[in-house]
Design brief:
heterodimer, A: mainly alpha, Helix Hairpins, B: two-stranded antiparallel ribbon, 21 helices, 2 strands, globular
Amino acid sequence: MEPLMAVAIGILFAAAIYMMLRRSIVKLVIGLMLLSNAANLLIFATAGMVRGAPPLVPKGMTAPAGAVADPLPQALVLTAIVIAFGVLSFAVVLVRRAWEIVRADDLDRMKDTDT
Amino acid sequence: MNPQIALPILIPLLAGAISLVFWRSRSMQRFIAVAGTAGLLLTALWLLTTVNRDGILVMNMGGWPAPFGISLVADLLGATMVVLTGIIGFAVALFSLGSVKRSHETYGYFPLMHLLLAGVAGAFLTGDIFNLYVWFEVMLVASFALLILGSEKAQMEGAIKYVTLNLISSVVFLVAVGLLYGMVGTLNMADIAFRLATLEDDGMIDVLAMMFMVAFGIKAAAFPLFFWLPASYHTAPVAVSALFAGLLTKVGVYALFRVFTLIFNQSPGYTHEILLWGAGLTMLSGVLGAAAQYEFRRILSFHIVSQIGYMILGLALFTPLALVGGVFYIAHHIIVKTNLFLISGIVQRLRGTYELKSLGGLYQSHPWLAVLFLIPALSLAGMPPLSGFFAKFLVIRAGLEAGAYGVTFIALLVGLLTLYSMIKIWAEVFWKATPSEADVDPPPSVGSKEMWLMLAPVVALGMCTLFIGLNAEPLYALAEASAGQLLDPDRYIEAVLGDTQEKTP
């Protein structure tokens, strides 16, 4: 399972970077979304994938028996998903407002603040 | 229990929440702004005196013992940074009372300011690397919203660059945290440092170190990824610019100091060498960018970049004296840079523009403002006896002692070019005659109460600069003690985890 995940994460990162290199700000936001999802999947994969072994301690024992899934990365991913959701909603609204005000979808025409 | 660790985070969070409750009451929000930031400053001072007396303070949230729960850790560097956050927060809150437009206040300027301060203080005090990521995001979201208050065209263009680069840096940080967890199976920074020291796999550690360097380097606006800063900082309302200039990039620098002294201190020949090159190029590119600018706040923004280089130089040399210099530099720079942005705000309020070409003659009409500008400006350039002189002296002396002559030469050259930029502002804004064909509408006259509210923080920060300059010993002793703690990560690890001798990783 891990090699498949690694390839999927790699493809997501590549697609995200490709989208962010486009000039359109809408594609930029799509790129950011893919990027944060790729990061979330990567954290999920770092702890290793264990199938059907919830991290529960049986009654009367102090540690779970055998190898179990690590619950911490899932908690981290949950936090990261929530944060990414909030930040990306801001980015979507920002892009919309920027289009309303600048009337351009092209990053090359947003250079007034660079010179 | 050590409530003073949690209070600098809780007070701004609470103040922000109460401000939201009083959404429609402008006077109540203004009162909470001052009371909340004053509370932050007082608790921060309490924290610093406690840490100075008793050593590193640790608080485990929710009573979970150290490597499992989230710990708040205050060592001297963290506590000093929180005090500086309090000073800047209080100064900017006062300044905002006189300068922030009513329409910005109704869109939630004050609650966002509190949230930003909470994020900054949290980042300085946390001892957990994932918690650091969360505080970074709290700070970022607040800064996004503050940056676009007013929704002008330039703000939108600047904000897109700011948001994109900061989100990329967050993702790189998050990926690095995930991979680090995959390697050591812990998120507590002290525990990570303890376990990494026993790992054999140097190659992967260096890869992770580079990922952290890129992530924090973007936040700190270090070369080559600083472009978001000069593109966005001059577009926001001036109180926001001042707050950002003082605190945000310094959180990145703090994170670099923390991570590269505590966790990635195995191969300084590799990581710190790259930091050294980065520092030199950051200083140079920032100051050269400033030389080409003719807008008050853009010049100052580029100088943030060049000054970040000096701080990273202190970290990169990695000798005791260099770290002392780095910490001293951060403290000096936060005060001076915020002050310069506040003064640019007063100039804009008086003349209605930031363009140097349309400004002039302020020395004739407001000589006291010219003096107030000269104190931080000359301090930034490193003129004795102001605070910047001692900061630069420490870093440069450390560079000479370490034999890094190339970077030291760049540091000296950049000091000279900084002086050039400051003289340029002085000559254009204060000294030359008022241009006759000024194409700016004269702004409405400034009320005296408004003026005093804007001047009080400027005077207070100027006094701080003078005080540090004329009496550098207390801050030097503080910087020396924090550098001592940074160079001895075992003390940090022991304070968090207890006696590590008994444990086997």
